[in-house]
Amino acid sequence: MRLIVMGTGPFAVPMFEAILAAGHDVPVVVTRPTRPARGRKKPPPNPMREAADHLGMDVWAPDSINDPEVVQQLGEVGADLMVVCDYGQILSRDTLATTRLGGINLHGSLLPKYRGAAPVQWAVINGDSHSGVTVIHMTPKLDGGPTLVQVDTPIEAHETAETLEVRLSQLGVPAVLEAIELLASWDGKSTLGAIQDSQEVTKAPRLTKQHGAICWSDSALDVINRHRGVQPWPGSFTLWDRGKQPLRLLVKEMVLAEQHGSGEPGEVIAAEDERLIVACGDGCVAFHQIQPAGKRLLTAGEFLRGYQIQPGIRFQSS
Question: How many CB atoms lie within 10 A of CB 72?
């Protein structure tokens, strides 16, 4: 089939490579434009552009995929189908109509659960036991089209959003190829796929920096789940008020801890050798790696030797 592939982030790359390996004709790849970075920061990476450029492919990066001029250009490609994943823009009805069979989208959740920009992260944050991928036949409604292929997988107890997303991107490869075959044999009229149950819809909004703030009144399990879900960004952090400006502590690694006494939420209840244990609303967590703002990453022992942390000190949520 003649396909237009649209994507930006790393989740789309395995699917894109598999489409090419399967022999489909991809005359153009569409991605988000690279925005100039502020100050000395580098522009954010665009894995799809890098993959397409490496292969010498034609890459488009319009500011708006729904601009009338862009829509006209898409129509002139004469493609059978759009294949979209991790792209970052909602396609209008006119845009979807530029190909003979419309578009399909690979999404990192078991739709209708977790519609939105951060489905993998919210599944982990909420402590779900399962996740998966869904390929839908696209409509202008965000992640709302009928489901064509769905694949379920367990979420491992210590899996982070970062590692789960890599695994789901691979799980999506055969799902996308199967969906393309379904569209290839579709008559364009008969019912295709299963309509999503609107009563089961949940949202997965894009994460912000504040989503990384540890809420010490939560249970220890909820604190750990959120920590797993905000990796690699924005990461888990807490504040330590030392009597002057609070010190921001980025917690790189933490685990559930056995009870070592009781304390108020955020209170340090053990601080010796390599043990830094903090009370939550229910249960405790142990810090293994901490990075004070502006400093290098430290083990719990290094942190305790370098800073005056004693039992009874309380960390703050924000």
Answer: 11
